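Support case: zinc ion complex. Customer-provided input:
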Amino acid sequence: MKIDCRVCGGVVETAVDLGRQPMANGFLRPDQRDTEHFFDLAIGMCERCTTVQLMEEVPQEMRYHSAYRYQASGSVGHRRHFAAIARHFLDQELLGPDPLIVEIGCNDGVMLETIARAGVRHLGVEPSGNVAAVARSKGVRVREDFFDEATGRDIRRTDGPADVVFGANTICHIAHVHSLFAGIDELLSDRGVFVFEEPYLGTIIGRTAFDQIYDEHVFYFTVRAMHAIARQFGFEVVDAEHIAMHGGSIRYTLARPGRRPVAARVGELLAQERAAGLAERATLQRFDATISGLRVELVELLRSLRSAGRRVVGYGAPGKSTTVTNFCGIGPDLIPYIVDSTPEKQGHLLPGTHIPVLAPEAFSEDPPDHAVLFSWNHAAEITAKESAFAAAGGRWITYVPRVAVTSAGATAALAG
Ligand code: DWN
Ligand code: SAH
Ligand code: ZN
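Agent response - structure generated as follows:
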């Protein structure tokens, strides 16, 4: 299959195909089993700008709404991470007489609550009403909307120029990339910075983290692709920092050309990407073959444990778990339930495979023999929380970077 690149109009051809899949966060009530939206989950690389992107898109209004299941404050690690970036902006960027920071995809206010407490002017732009309400309850000012060119222009009119526009795991969700950057151009001050952190194609491939591929993640950025995107829309990549979030992300800093010095690590990451062949379609095709082998291994392991009478459950129902279970054909016959700490996911069914999601108490009250760690990027926090499980002989099953039955210690190291 071929499509036109959303960034530059070049040709994008399918390179990794994960088959018919539901929306990753489309958790169902038991009576909603027959209402699921499926689409062809596949990615390809643009032959011109090398941006990797979904071949088929799920409309944003179907993905983000008043029952959005993901709450960004659902882990200690993420709360700490976003409090730290907020303090960085307060100390380094929001120093003018009347500074303004705008966050695209502020979710439940996990970052902006620190800014609000500091009494600094801010605005969250968040289309999912339920999480926007949580942000407001924390004192965060929120505009319930999808950010695009019109939104950027309107915020400039009502609030003035922004010194910082921030996004985390959101910019890669936005398919209307031309309108997005036109909105940034409208909103950002002359010396302002557009800072955003997104899962990194380099670590998705390097760690075989194929479960990061799903409907919400429209783009899978590299520094090289972002360099081309920035230039196309009148900006410059002035910094690119490899961070551990979500198993490996890049925090990009864009500015207007010549306004900020370019950090040396931008060139270092570009060189690493060249060495890793990240701009070559063949790299994606090898990745496609690797995950097909991983699928066979994971299903064979689960089947052999079932045959041996061992009880296996899932731990964590991140968006990623929808991709793994549907791609591998893992249903309640192999994993009878998954526990997750998000109240809005409990009592619901995992999209596609309809594995029931229960509260974590089900795990601690009746520990299984094995647990597949779907929230592997939270491994340290989870294995510490469930240390009694491993102490009693329970074993974690992981599949990133490869299928393995591990002790708690080795599992904890997975988070990166
Ligand atoms: O890009 C996105 C990122 C920001 O978050 C969105 N597409 C949606 C979402 O992706 P995700 O669901 O893969 O994010 P997480 O943070 O890996 O999800 C972790 C899941 O694990 C949550 O549902 C909460 C759960 N969890 C748990 O049950 N016990 C997490 C921890 C730390 C725990 O102790
Ligand atoms: N920033 C948080 C949440 C990421 S989940 C974190 O990193 O954990 C992605 C968020 O982006 C969701 O809350 C979703 O509603 C929001 N979003 C999606 N498209 C958007 C758009 N065009 N403008 C603003 N927010 C958007
Ligand atoms: Zn392109």
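The chain has two domains: 72-276, 283-415.

Case will auto-close in a few days if no follow-up is received.
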